[in-house]
Amino acid sequence: HALIGELRKAIEDGGLEMHYQPKVDVRVGRVVGLEALIRWRHDGVLVSPASFIPLAEECGLIVPLGQFVLRQVCADLARLVGAQVAVPVSINLAGQQFDDPALAADIAMTLASYDLPSHLLEVEITEGTLIEDVAHSLENLRALSVLGIRTSIDDFGTGYSSLSYLKKFPIDVLKIDQSFVRDMLTDSSDAAIISAIISLASSLRMDLVAEGVEQQAQADRLLAMGCAIMQGYLYSRPLPFEEMLTLLRRET
Ligand code: G
Ligand code: G
Ligand code: MN
Ligand code: NA
């Protein structure tokens, strides 16, 4: 596969870049966090990770790719701290990264090398990854939690987690999957699922982020239902670091 060789090269020669999408607390209209999303500039075109992350997972490149992400995000975070506009940044972890026994130590070392407090880094793990091996996930989550790293369940509602697992996992945030947000105004089942996720988060004392918010009417409805932190094109697309820095500076 020619693309595998080119991806390996991109990981080694800086062909990958991180973009950042804000999470907004709509009660106060402020950016309260960012999600880091990887981009590959290949022949001048940005390639979506939806196509190359699965490839990286298949050919053993996901761990080196994840190490690039961790270092780049910490380097960017250090610049946000320097500019006095730092907010927590979340990174996405694929299953093999989350299962890597060296993950917590890698994160601790990288944070320390940039002199960053652990609360500025968060991780997003999909529900599917978490329930693959519950005992192992619990151990990994505890290792991150002991470090002070906040953990989110990404795409929540799509992976068939049972409530009993949720109770055991030290998880800080549920991210409501964008598939529910998309049709919530017209599909009463989607609205009902969102409502159930919101009460679940409240009972388990977890924070909430709604993903894929594109319309003001969706944001209004989500806020009325009890979810105040939103992420989506209504607020901003994922932006290159320099543009995100400008946006954060303008806010303060
Ligand atoms: O950014 P975009 O919406 O195109 O992302 C597509 C998918 O790629 C999402 O599922 C997202 O979680 C995943 N993704 C984006 N960046 C990263 C990353 O740095 N690491 C991993 N493992 N997945 C990522
Ligand atoms: O799987 P994960 O949730 O990590 O990835 C989020 C994906 O959703 C990224 O590919 C990101 O670019 C995309 N995204 C972010 N905001 C919106 C939005 O408002 N609408 C849509 N359709 N996609 C979005
Ligand atoms: Mn995510
Ligand atoms: Na998601």
TrEMBL record:
Domain EAL, first and last residues per copy: 1-252
Coiled coil: none
Protein's UniProt name: Response regulator receiver modulated diguanylate cyclase/phosphodiesterase with PAS/PAC sensor(S)
Organism expressing this protein natively: Rugamonas rubra
Lineage, top ranks: Bacteria, Pseudomonadati, Pseudomonadota, Betaproteobacteria, Burkholderiales
Full protein segment contained here: 558 to 809 of 818
